[in-house]
């Protein structure tokens, strides 16, 4: 990478993206056709952040995030633009079970993010006690109040439906999505579609019902929903990087390069970076921070004008998980995984198991169906971090034992893999939306500075992509204003 003096020779604005996870790479990709020179700096030894794919028993299986929502136009277009459109494949089913009372019980179809809308259907699942069902039925008739201020999910949903709905449906959903707990997470930030729907409906039951798509008629394909790539979601970051380098003149992507400090200059920014013990000063016209909240906070802490953003970023907690992936011979499941009715199951915390969610990957994704059954078990998360201190063999034994209890698998796996994701999932605690609004407002006071990633508007792949496009748009708007000011 060029040093300070060499940067003076480049007439095009220099944009530095710090972080080469899916958000950072998407931000650079969105800027690839702009009249800029791009540099992407990544402290780690590989691209992709929480997107990674590797083989288990000869099969390519994701180690981290495994899906995205294909109905998001920008997400689908991004995949197509990097040449992976033909690899996009939707899930075979979204039917999910709950492991409770020593049985796999179907999650009702008429629920949204764990919030039910059909009490008769819910009663038939056996997920709730008769008393819990009776309490849940009252929700539709309760006066709607307390929804305009941010509250924890358990408090708000529990006041509406009773605690059993929280414990058996909503809390397992949140543990699956972000490894968090409903007692701490923000209703407004985590169940945002429901919070918005409540502005138009008199109850949570009605709001949830309004968000549930009717089943597709027999013989008709459902609209595209949850999808993955046949090469694994971990194949997306390298494809993005290749396209950035191919289409953006002078672009570069550097691994094992840590940004140690960020300084405001009279025009633009100065970054101090280290690579292999060598320290270097880099000048940039604009900077996009695509980092976890704590790392972004440290870089911003030395900039008094954005001290509010630094403080708010530091207040976003994170938790970690481990994904234990198993490959079993098909005959190990006498009746098929879950009778092949489900794509996986969630486990309520009150059941006391280490495993919080299981994905039947070879059922969920048709391209993984074959001689082996592939399953992914999620362990850890808020309230259960201590389990991650066990070694890999212990985690494999623990997950395997709990898996056998739930599925009846009666043979050992042919292969197992442990993927650890320490401090990888931000927790949107109460007040998160206001916190994010303050962060963006603070950063907006600094020309050519933007931030994106999972810490802000959603932990899913599609959310991170949307966040990155917003950051790139902010940089482009700034460049347009700069050009206009210079005539």
From TrEMBL:
Molecular function per GO: oxygen-dependent protoporphyrinogen oxidase activity
SUPFAM superfamilies cross-referenced by the UniProt entry: FAD-linked reductases, C-terminal domain, FAD/NAD(P)-binding domain
Subcellular location per the Swiss-Prot or TrEMBL entry: Cytoplasm
GO cellular component: cytoplasm
Catalytic reactions of this protein: coproporphyrinogen III + 3 O2 = coproporphyrin III + 3 H2O2
Listed pathway(s): Porphyrin-containing compound metabolism; protoheme biosynthesis
Amine oxidase domain mapped to chain residues: 22-475
UniProt enzyme class: oxidoreductase
Gene3D superfamilies: FAD/NAD(P)-binding domain (3.50.50.60), protoporphyrinogen ix oxidase, domain 3 (1.10.3110.10), Protoporphyrinogen oxidase, mitochondrial, domain 2 (3.90.660.20)
Keywords from the UniProt entry: Cytoplasm, FAD, Flavoprotein, Heme biosynthesis, Oxidoreductase
Single GO BP term: heme biosynthetic process
Keyword Translocase included in the entry's annotation: no
Cofactors required: FAD
Primary location group: cytoplasm
EC number: 1.3.3.15
Record function comment: Involved in coproporphyrin-dependent heme b biosynthesis. Catalyzes the oxidation of coproporphyrinogen III to coproporphyrin III.
Family affiliation: Belongs to the protoporphyrinogen/coproporphyrinogen oxidase family. Coproporphyrinogen III oxidase subfamily.
Protein name: Coproporphyrinogen III oxidase
Organism field: Kineosporia babensis
């Amino acid at each position: 990478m060029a040093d300070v003096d060499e940067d003076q020779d480049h007439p095009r604005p220099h944009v530095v993206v710090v972080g080469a996870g899916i958000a950072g790479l998407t931000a650079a990709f969105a800027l690839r056709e702009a009249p800029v020179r791009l540099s992407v700096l990544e402290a780690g030894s590989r691209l992709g952040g929480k997107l990674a794919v590797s083989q288990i028993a000869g099969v390519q299986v994701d180690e981290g995030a495994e899906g995205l929502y294909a109905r998001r136009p920008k997400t689908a277009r991004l995949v197509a633009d990097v040449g992976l459109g033909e690899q996009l494949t939707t899930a075979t089913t979204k039917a999910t079970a709950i492991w409770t009372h020593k049985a796999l019980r179907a999650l009702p179809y008429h629920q949204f993010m764990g919030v039910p809308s059909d009490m008769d259907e819910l009663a038939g699942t056996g997920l709730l006690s008769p008393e819990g069902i009776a309490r849940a039925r009252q929700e539709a008739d309760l006066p709607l109040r307390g929804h305009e201020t941010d509250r924890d999910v358990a408090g708000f949903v529990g006041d509406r439906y009773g605690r059993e709905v929280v414990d058996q449906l909503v809390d397992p959903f949140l543990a699956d999505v972000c490894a968090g707990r409903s007692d701490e997470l923000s209703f407004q930030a985590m169940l945002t579609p429901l919070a918005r729907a409540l502005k138009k409906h008199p109850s949570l039951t009605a709001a949830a019902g309004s968000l549930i798509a009717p089943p597709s008629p027999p013989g008709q394909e459902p609209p595209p929903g949850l999808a993955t790539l046949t090469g694994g979601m971990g194949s997306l970051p390298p494809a993005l990087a290749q396209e950035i380098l191919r289409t953006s003149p002078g672009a570069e992507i550097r691994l094992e390069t840590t940004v140690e400090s960020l300084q405001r200059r009279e025009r633009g920014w100065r970054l101090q970076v280290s690579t292999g013990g060598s320290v270097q000063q880099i000048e940039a016209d604009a900077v996009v921070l695509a980092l976890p909240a704590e790392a972004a906070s440290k870089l911003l802490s030395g900039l008094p004008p954005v001290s509010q953003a630094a403080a708010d970023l530091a207040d976003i907690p994170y938790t970690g998980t481990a994904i234990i992936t198993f490959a079993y011979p098909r005959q190990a499941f006498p009746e098929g995984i879950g009778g092949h009715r489900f794509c996986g199951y969630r486990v309520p915390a009150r059941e006391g198991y280490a495993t919080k969610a299981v994905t039947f990957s070879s059922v969920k994704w048709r391209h993984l169906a074959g001689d082996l059954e592939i399953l992914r078990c999620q362990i850890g998360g808020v309230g259960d971090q201590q389990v991650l201190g066990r070694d890999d063999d212990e985690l494999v034994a623990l997950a395997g034992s709990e898996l056998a209890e739930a599925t009846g698998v009666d043979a050992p796996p042919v292969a197992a893999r442990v993927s650890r994701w320490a401090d990888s999932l931000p927790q949107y605690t109460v007040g998160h939306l206001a916190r994010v609004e303050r962060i963006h407002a603070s950063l907006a006071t600094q020309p050519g500075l933007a931030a994106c990633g999972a810490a802000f508007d959603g932990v899913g792949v599609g959310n991170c992509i949307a966040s990155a496009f917003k950051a790139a748009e902010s940089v482009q708007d700034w460049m347009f204003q700069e050009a206009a000011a210079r005539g």
